[in-house]
Design brief:
single chain, about 575 residues, alpha+beta, about 30% helix, globular
Length: about 575
């Protein structure tokens, strides 16, 4: 749907693995020198080793890391071409850009397709894509810069910089540290509050989001497990602004883009025509790619920028990746080895899926600060994905061998990203594995749940429009503590749902079986939502996803509306 429902590269669902986290890794020290960072990394790995030993039950079939030679031959380039072309055609992508790094050097780039399907405007290595949650690592690098500059510490209380910050629980508010904003272990439910970020455009500001946090009930105990959220990265962006003395977008351009030469990357407000060469997001609708949520002439700054609002092209993403794989002396001065270690060290365990164990022989997965990490076929990987409506990205690093790759897609490419990334990764971690895109696509297809009564979802296309008289006194104005006001009112003989601050959360109220639902006008807003009325004083309205397994950013279940009055 609209949100940053990221998976790791070997997952085809939304929101990552479903198993429960059983432990947390040591927390990072407050002030980092190179020595303390190394000691922290050793402690983190020591905490993970018992899990590695306990879970090491899957036979390893890949070649040992010491025998794997990175290939820069014509054969390797042909392999990359085959994988890229297969993914592009198999998944009917409007556009695709891929780059590969071997031993710290870019050895392969390939771009296919169009910025806008049918336009003839070809994608190239400078075409801008939404990198979505790959923005998070740029935000944490900015924070690392501020730590190096002595402007903040990782264990500083958030309220030192943002006095109005408040979580639902007063104790959590007091205890929340800068580092806690970054590890998805705050207690916020998975995707909690994401409806304030997406669908865009909307009228929520970062100040609105910071204020709304106090109303979002926790889904689990603080620091007890991993549950992906986006709102606290928005908070992290505002904290950086407070510590750095300038707006987040200004700091990102000055402290990250400019020093690293990321000349095409964009954040905040910018003129689309002046920048040029921008890919639009697409959905695969009615058998063809169609633009969804096209940009206006002026791209606005959004509240979500620190969590997922940055755009970059392939060349700049490869430069960003090389900064981590083979930093120059100037880049090591830009961000110290101590902070680099902290950002990419494991801070919170992530549950492993059965698929990851089977495909990658992984034993442990964790989250750092804006990065995921796991062992794959005996090699350490550091990566992140990015997901927005009609845009998918992945940046994969194999730091011990200075290898990596970047994938950028401007279409409905969730499985395409998963499968292409797996094929490219195996080229480095298990070169004897020749399944490629076709083989892993077949495995993914075989793993999909088979249709049956338990998996059947009601078809909202069969729902019937509700007449205003059928709802009677239930029509009116409603308010949720964090999403704000919505209306359920008569319009042209039908009933309409409209969120005041989110124009795309608008649709017709329908009846399906014995329940009411709202069918969104914009079909890229997915899934549709049940509406459940609770009569009383005051009357209440709650919502739920029509597809209970839909994107967690559609966090309708966290809403609790109270009726405020009748329709105007």
């Amino acid at each position: 749907m609209q949100g940053l429902s990221d998976t790791h590269h070997a997952g085809t669902g939304h929101g990552g693995d479903s198993a429960r986290s059983v432990a947390t890794l040591p927390r990072a020290p407050a002030r980092h020198t190179a020595a303390t960072a190394r000691r922290f990394a050793r402690r983190a790995l020591a905490a993970a080793l018992p899990l590695l030993a306990a879970c090491a039950t899957t036979p390893h079939t890949g070649a040992p890391a010491s025998t794997i030679a990175t290939a820069t031959t014509a054969t390797a380039r042909q392999t990359y071409d085959r994988y890229v072309e297969d993914a592009y055609t198999r998944y009917h992508l409007p556009g695709l850009a891929v780059g590969v790094i071997e031993d710290g050097q870019v050895v392969y780039t390939r771009t296919l397709g169009e910025r806008v399907a049918g336009s003839g405007e070809k994608i190239d290595a400078d075409t801008l894509f939404k990198i979505a949650s790959n923005s998070k690592a740029m935000t944490t690098a900015l924070l690392g810069r501020l730590v190096d500059q002595g402007k903040l510490r990782w264990d500083d209380p958030v309220t030192r910089y943002l006095p109005g910050f408040q979580m639902h629980d007063a104790w959590v508010t007091r205890e929340m540290r800068v580092s806690d904003l970054l590890t998805h272990s705050s207690g916020l439910p998975e995707g909690g509050g994401d409806l304030m970020l997406w669908p865009e455009p909307n009228a929520f500001t970062r100040a609105d989001i910071i204020h709304a946090l106090r109303y979002i009930k926790p889904g689990y105990s603080f620091r007890s497990k991993y549950q992906y959220d986006n709102l606290l990265y928005v908070v992290a962006g505002e904290l950086a602004a407070a510590a750095g003395g300038a707006p987040y977008e200004t700091l990102m351009r000055r402290e990250v883009f400019a020093p690293l030469g990321l000349s095409r990357c964009q954040v905040g407000r910018w003129d689309r025509a002046a920048v040029g060469n921008v890919a639009e997001p697409h959905g695969y609708l009615d058998g063809r790619n169609r633009v969804i949520r096209a940009d206006d002439a002026e791209v606005p700054a959004t509240a979500s920028d620190p969590a997922g609002g940055i755009r970059c092209g392939l060349n700049d993403m490869l430069a960003w990746a090389r900064n981590w794989l083979a930093p120059t002396p100037a880049q090591l001065a830009w961000l110290s080895p101590a902070q680099r270690t902290v950002l990419q060290a494991p801070h919170m365990l992530i549950p492993l899926s059965a698929q990851r164990r089977e495909w990658d022989h992984s034993h442990v997965m964790a989250y750092g600060y804006g990065w995921r990490m796991a062992d794959v076929d005996g090699q350490w990987t550091v990566w992140h994905t990015g997901t927005l409506a009609g845009m998918y990205s992945e940046l994969m690093l194999l730091p011990d061998r200075r290898n990596g790759f970047v994938i950028l897609i401007n279409g409905n490419g969730g499985e395409a990203r998963t499968i292409l990334a797996e094929a490219l990764l195996k080229h480095f971690t298990a070169p004897a594995d020749t399944r490629g895109v076709a083989g892993y696509a077949a495995l993914a297809a075989a793993a999909r749940p088979k249709p049956g009564p338990a998996s059947h979802l009601p078809d909202s296309a069969t729902a019937l429009a509700v007449a205003p008289h059928a709802l009677g006194a239930r029509l009116g104005r409603y308010r949720d503590p964090w999403l704000g006001a919505v209306t359920l009112c008569a319009q042209n003989g039908a009933v309409r749902f409209q969120a005041q601050k989110s124009p795309r959360l608008a649709g017709a109220v329908m009846q399906l079986g014995g329940r009411y639902l709202v069918r969104w006008d914009d079909r890229s807003v997915d899934p549709d939502a049940w509406l459940d009325f609770h009569d009383g004083v005051p009357a209440r309205l709650t919502m739920a996803k029509l597809d209970p397994h839909g994107d967690f950013s559609s966090d309708y279940e966290d809403l609790d509306f109270t009726r405020e009055g009748g329709c105007d």
